[in-house]
Amino acid sequence: MLTVHQTPDVTLTARASRDIEADLLILPIVENAALADEPELDTASGGEVEAARARGEITGKAFSVFVTTLRGWKASRVALVGVGSGNDVSADRLRRAATTGALAARHRRLPRIAIVHRPDTGVAAAVAAQVMAEGAVLANFDGAAYKTADPPRVWLETVQLKVGGESADLTRAAERGRVLGECTNLSRSLSNEPGNVLTPRVFAERASAIATDAGLSVEIFDEARIADLKMGLLLGVARGSREPPRLVVLRYEPPAGKGRSSGTDGAPQPVLGLIGKGVTFDTGGISIKPSDNMDKMKDDMSGGAAVVCAMAAIARLQAPVRCVAVIPMVENMPDGLAAKPGDVLTSAEGKTVEVLNTDAEGRLILGDAVWYARQLGATHLVDVATLTGACVVALGRTATGLFGTPDAWVNRVKQASERAGERSWPMPVFDDYKELFKSEIADFANTGGRAGGAITAALFIKEFTGGLPWVHLDIAGTAWAEQATPYQPTGATGTGVRTLAELALDPTPFGV
Ligand code: BES
Ligand code: MN
Ligand code: ZN
């Protein structure tokens, strides 16, 4: 594999635009806004900026890009990147505009960029510092890890951010954005890996290296240890493959004095439990999938990758809450010993499941993993999974399916996802839907038919949460970009990393 991402240096600058030394000066601009605060820009461009505006080439429409050369300024070129019209401008627009501008720099083989935040976006300086850093780092990613003949890539080396000041807080915000961008890229690189490379054993090794680097404590459970724990659901899926399963457990403790609850007030410390689906390839098993698009099922470990990389961000940014993560890793294959439709499996918790469809494997492995997160002391659960095609039907590729209970916990995760620029949208988890996956012979079945397919999958997982506050994020539609946009090439998106990290970094104590 070639290097597919690199993290540039990110610094703040308070210089006037004309004095910022860079190969490309990036200005995110609001639609129809006058550049009144940059009166010399047009002159420096030799009149190009006003001429382009007059002929309608510069519009400020979201993610439009205009590049021209500059004379007499320290930067040799400027890029005006649109963020759209006033009301629609948001921190996420700014993040995406930063990626768009940074990609324009890489395409022109310009490794040193500066991004100048203009206050008419209405985005606060600290938020701007974070999202512009994130956006720039996200641009330093390539999907073509196995192409041997491409010309050498240009990576961004330095990113200067101008947000209207230099302070410890702003520096921290930029650093936070840099780490969140880097951890998103790590997750994307894992999800893009083909199934023959990233087997459960290799995934566990890579996860362990990422986590160890970040200072997390790591345990890898092999198939014997998984059998000791009686994880019949995970083992039931693993039986169909020659590749043995793994279960990765990560732990994070906030540094002394940074924890949310000192313990002196008697309140028990919350423990955030993160669980991610790590199916390194999903053929469907005996209920085998059609061959069209089956190749995409190499990304069926995206939830697991998101959890690993979010934990790395949480540790590096020293979030104020204890976290445990459980990632079951397995390949869903139709080998001779594979689970068959009609088989009954017994979960580690003791609940029995009739496997009506071996392609509904994600909820099986998550059942055992969620139970194990509780054994590790988790008090608040979030699972992330490319779980159902039904979720893609319901929400398309724009929003992640958001399920869970109670509402306060669900809303907290939703807000984190908004801060992260990873949109999610609520779906119901009414008990009535449980009727749909009743089994004649076991506690329940692993499928509930086509109607409400994303919801019955979520409710299946809920059976293993022991009544704890729980959120399920179905990223089946959002983990993979089928269509390129100005800020996201086709391939893995790394979605989930920043939502989980923002959730853990939230300084307000968990209320539920
Ligand atoms: N990994 C798939 C879900 C998926 C489908 C993710 C499309 C991304 C794109 C999951 O394991 C699966 O196969 N789900 C089945 C469930 C069904 C058999 C009840 C599905 O959605 O078809
Ligand atoms: Mn499946
Ligand atoms: Zn799957």
Tell me the layout of helices and strands.
Layout: E1 9-12, E2 24-30, H1 41-44, H2 48-54, E3 65-69, E4 77-84, H3 91-107, E5 112-116, H4 125-139, E6 158-162, H5 168-192, H6 200-213, E7 217-221, H7 223-228, H8 232-238, E8 246-252, E9 271-276, E10 278-282, H9 302-316, E11 322-332, E12 344-346, E13 352-354, H10 362-375, E14 380-385, H11 389-395, E15 400-405, H12 407-420, E16 424-426, E17 444-445, H13 453-462, E18 470-474, E19 480-481, E20 491-492, H14 497-505
Parallel strand pairs: 1-6, 2-4, 2-5, 5-6, 9-11, 9-14, 10-11, 13-17, 14-18, 15-16
Antiparallel strand pairs: 3-4, 7-8, 8-11, 12-13, 15-18, 19-20
Helix pairs in contact: 3-4, 4-5, 5-9, 6-9, 8-10, 9-14, 10-13, 12-14
This protein binds ligand BES, manganese (II) ion and zinc ion.
Residues 282, 300, 357, 359-362, 386-390, 392, 447, 453, 476 line the site of ligand BES.
Report on this structure.
The protein folds into 2 domains: 9-163, Leucine Aminopeptidase, subunit E, domain 1; 181-505, Zn peptidases (Aminopeptidase, 3-Layer(aba) Sandwich), CATH 3.40.630. It is elongated, with a radius of gyration of 24 Å. Strands 7, 8, 9, 10, 11, 14, 15, 16 and 18 form a 9-stranded mixed sheet that branches. Strands 1-6-5-2-4-3 form a 6-stranded mixed sheet. Helix 4 (125-139) links the parallel strand 5 and strand 6. The longest helix has 25 residues, at 168-192. It has 512 residues and is of the alpha/beta class. Helix 4 (125-139) packs parallel to helix 5 (168-192) and helix 10 packs parallel to helix 13 (453-462). It has helices at residues 41-44, 48-54, 91-107, 125-139, 168-192, 200-213, 223-228, 232-238, 302-316, 362-375, 389-395, 407-420, 453-462, 497-505, and strands spanning 9-12, 24-30, 65-69, 77-84, 112-116, 158-162, 217-221, 246-252, 271-276, 278-282, 322-332, 344-346, 352-354, 380-385, 400-405, 424-426, 444-445, 470-474, 480-481, 491-492. It contains 14 helices and 20 strands. 32% of the residues lie in helices and 20% in strands. The mean pLDDT is 96.
